[in-house]
Each structure stands twice: as structure tokens, then as C-alpha cells.
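Please think about what follows:
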Amino acid sequence: MFNVYPLYDVTLVRGKGTKVFDSHGEEYLDLYGGHGVISIGHSHPHYVKALKDQLDQIGFYSNSVINPLQVELAEKLGRASGCEDYELFLCNSGAEANENALKLASFHTGRSKVISFSGSFHGRTSASVAVTDNPKINAPLNQQHEVSILPLNDSEAVASLLEKGDVAAVIIEGIQGVGGLDQGNTEFLQDLEARCRENGTVLILDEIQSGYGRSGKFFAFQHHGIRPDIITVAKGMANGFPIGGVLIGPQFEASFGLLGTTFGGNHLACAAAISVLDVIEHEDSIARIDELSESIRKSLADLPGLLRIKGRGLMLGLEFDFKVADLRKKLIYQKKIFTGGSANPNLLRILPPLNVTRDDLNRFTTALNELLVESEDLKINNGYE
């Protein structure tokens, strides 16, 4: 294998609900969901049955034939999200969704410049990595794109560029994931929407990580009363089956060949994505997010070294006054709990499945408190304080 991933010494072989199991039979609590991909829990029975039943029928054919599952998915996604007047283009990943969104914006406006924001992460492919705020993964080939990365929540900086009339799109995450759970505030986002309208610029909301109920609403932008031109989705969309989507506003005109994909919208992917929406509806998953979020915030408030809790709903970042890499290792190896990191080395990230329980979260807060108290005791005993 091309060695590009730092790996924890854990081999996972099975998952059920919020738990995963390694090759030695050890159980772990999964509060990270493989970068926020597991939305309804590992091996949910409705999800598993949907995939098995579909595989018994037909797993794949290209987009040259009618696939009723695509229409069913589009209609259910529209109803679940409240975005019924958008149209859907299906692809395979978040990066691909953002690529197509940016391409569509450029076609629509006849422009090539893009604005994104500090701390952003939109993917690793050509244009999506160009609008990502990480020079280490941005190759010279990608740097040919005309991109301005501006400070988040700086309306004046955005206005000065948009007023030139040559910006095709502004792309922004509903809540930043990799960047560390920062987000645009309501005043900024509403101003951004208005200025994009005034200057004929397409507003793209990247909801790849923050969508599908994780923030307490179906999309995180819905906390701010705005309406994007394009919305991109992926991660939680099919509970681990590769899929991505672009929700496209009614002002965009489709034409044959404008966008395309070989694997996007295949039968298996659609069956997986439909089953996720079914579960979210039948289990009323989003309705419980705010209560769980408030509960875990209260239980974490007095942790040693905790500076602040960032994010919304069950997309949370715990920012400490120390680097958390060692803490994450202890959570995995000593407490058997998976969490995530971010570009902020002091931030511990949790992205649990939407079916996470209060007991699961209590287990996490207890484990975290034990490790931090133990760490404080070691400091004192070794003369650091």
C-alpha cells in the first residue's frame, strides 16, 4: 500500500450500532464514524436488508438507462431536507460533489474565480483541493485555479472581491470539519447570501460533513435562514457506501453532457442512500440531536484543561489548552473509544452516529474525565506544578 495514512494499531472486523469490534474481539465505542460517514449506526438492519435485496436484483448499470431509484432518492432527500425545489446530481464522493458544484457555477456564470475561507476543507481533487486551505496537499497543478482564501466572518473582505463582478462562486462549509469546527455566524452568512445575489455569484454550501442532521437540522445552513444556490452532500448520505450528491437550485439549466459520471447514482448506492433517509425518518433521528448535544455539553463543561466546546448538535470539537494527539491514543488503547482530530492540534472531534445513546456519551465523558484527572495528577506528582 502507498504509505500515506498514519495508522492506529487496530484491525476492525465488525460493527453494530455505535460499537465496532477488532480482530481480537475487543469492543470499541465509535464516536467518530469513520470521519463522520456512519450516520445511522453500523450494520443497521434496514440498511443491510436494503443492500442485500438490491444486490439480488441488480447492483449496477450506467446512467444510459432509467433508474427509478434515483428519482425515489431525489424525492425523499428533497422532503427530508426541505429542499424540494432543488434538482439532484449524483456522484461518488464529497470531493466529486464539490468539483461538479464548482464546474456548474463556472458554466452558469462564465467566470472562473472562486472564494473560499480560512480553515476550509473541500476535498483532494483538482478544484476541490484548490479551494481547500492547506498548502501541503495543494500541488502545483491544482494551484492554477484562481482562488482567494479569505478570513471567515469577514464581510468586508468578501464584499471587496465580489464587487469586481468576476467571481464565479463562493464555497463555504456549513460547519468546518477538518478545519476545527469553526463556522460562519448568522450575520456573516446572511450578508454573504445577499452579496452573492447582488453580484451574480453562485453560493455553494458544502454540507458534506455537517449535513444529514448532524447539526440538529438537516443542513447546518438552516440554522441561519439562508438559501444557497447549490448544496453538496456525501459522508452520512449512505452510511458508508460511496456516494455524493449536488443539490442544484432551479435557476440552473441542465443540458446533455454538462455533468457526468460512470458510477454515480448506481443502483446499490441509491438503495443505501434511500435506506438512510428511511431510518432517519422512522427513528426521528434529528429530533433528539439538540437534547443530546445539550446534555454532553453540560457534562463536559468542567473538564480539566478544556477551553471551549465548538460546533453544533453532534458535530462537536473540544478545544483544550494542550495538544490532544496523546489523549486520542489513550482514548483508543486504554478506554476503547474512537474520536477524531483536526487541523487544530488542540481540538478533539466527535462525530457519532445519529443513533448514539446517552449511555454512550456518558461513557465518553467518564473516560475523558478519568484520563484528564490522571494526567493532572501525574503533572503534580512529577513536579510540573
Q: What stands out?
A: The two ends are 45 Å apart (CA to CA). Confidence is low (pLDDT under 50) at residues 380-385. The first helix runs from residue 33 to 36. The chain has two domains: 12-43+285-381, 45-281.
